[in-house]
Amino acid sequence: MREQRLVFDEAATLYDQYRANYPPQLAADLLAMANVKEGDRLLEIGCGTGKATIHFAPYGYPLLALEPGVAMCAIARQKCVAFPNVAFQNLVFEQWPLEAATFKLVYAAMSLHWVDPEIAFTKTADALVPGGTLACIWNRPQESEDALRQEIRRAYEKVKHVKQPQKAHPQARYDGQGGTTERFNASGRFGTVFSAQYPHSAEYTADAYIKLMQTMSDHRIMPEIEREWLYGEIHDAIERFGGVITVDYVVTVYLARRL
Predict the structure, then answer these.
(1) What's the average model confidence in pLDDT over 142-168?
(2) Could you tell me which of 126, 106, 124 has the C-alpha nearest to residue 115?
(3) Contact status, residue 28 vs residue 57, Cβ threshold 8 Å
(4) What value does the mean pLDDT take over residues 37-54?
(5) Residue 130 class from Cβ within 10 Å (0-12 exposed, 13-18 middle, 19+ buried)?
(6) pTM of this prediction?
(7) Contact (Cβ atoms closer than 8 angstroms) between residue 114 and residue 144
(8) How many alpha carbons fall within 13 Å on the CB side of residue 218?
(9) CB-neighbour burial class of residue 124 (10 A; exposed 0-12, middle 13-18, buried 19+)
(10) Is residue 158 very low, low, confident or very high in pLDDT (cuts 50, 70, 90)?
(11) Among candidates 79, 93, 75, 82, which has minimal Cα distance to 15?
(12) What are the tens digits of pLDDT across the range 173-227?
């Protein structure tokens, strides 16, 4: 049975081309907020194709990026080939041999929800130097009530009744007001949680939007006949509404220092 958190590797090239990017300012702000200095080390959990990694790499700090997907990791390596300060390990965070009290900044960009919740905040704290910073980065599309989104929602509703019951998406445990903050606080390993937001947007043609959908893990594990029907409905809806869909995103960063 395919493990949901590993299916991204099946669409690594599409993921790199169509998933939302991160604002370059994010890396500069995080490094400043974490008070990273010369000689400090960084750890990235679940780097994917390096969409966030590439913004941290040019600063020259030693950066270890973990990624379980072979194809995803290969793209990230190639993207960072000009930066000898960046190293990669092809494995999940749970399997990574802990380097205790080593890193000044540990960050996870759209990946911490795939880590076993029993260790997500404990092993990260163990990896940080005292006073080091953990940053959880979410890059999420915002809800919209325009006519096109309503058409797309109706298409999803038509497939829901024939889909097998699914477990709640792992990201749900970090959703809602204070969701991530509550996880930080419940661990007992971190101080005050701070947050910052970076709004941005992207435009997709009908074809490009379907490519984006093909990178979504919950879509990839759907039965093929349902998935293709759904994509056809979404594609047709976008074409009827002018052939382009604009998606508003907000990057939200939650960060706190290890006690």
Answers:
(1) 76
(2) 124
(3) no
(4) 98
(5) exposed
(6) 0.91
(7) no
(8) 15
(9) buried
(10) confident
(11) 75
(12) 565 546 899 999 999 999 999 999 999 999 999 999 999 999 998 888 888 899 9
Is a pLDDT exceeding 90 seen at residue 122? yes
Q: Are 106 and 135 in contact (CB under 8 A)?
A: yes
Given the structure tokens 């979410």, which residue do they identify?
Answer: 138
Give the pLDDT of residue 107: 99
The rounded distance, in Å, linking the Cα atoms of 195 and 215 is 27
What's residue 106's pLDDT?
99
HSE toward the beta carbon, residue 243, CA cutoff 13 A:
0
Measured in degrees and rounded to the nearest 5, phi and psi for residue 185 equal -65, -40
Q: Give the count of beta carbons closer than 10 Å to the beta carbon of residue 99.
A: 12
Q: How far apart are CA 84 and CA 210, in angstroms?
A: 36
The backbone torsions φ and ψ at residue 207, rounded to the nearest 5 degrees and listed phi first, read -65, -45
Q: Token match 């005292």: residue?
A: 130
Chosen CATH of 4-143+168-200+249-257 out of 3.20.20.30, 3.40.50.880, 3.40.50.150, 3.40.50.9100: 3.40.50.150
**pLDDT averaged over every residue in the chain:** 92
Task: Please spell the DSSP secondary structure of 107-152, one letter per residue.
Answer: EEES-GGGS-TTTTTHHHHHHEEEEEEEEEEEEEEPP--SHHHHHH
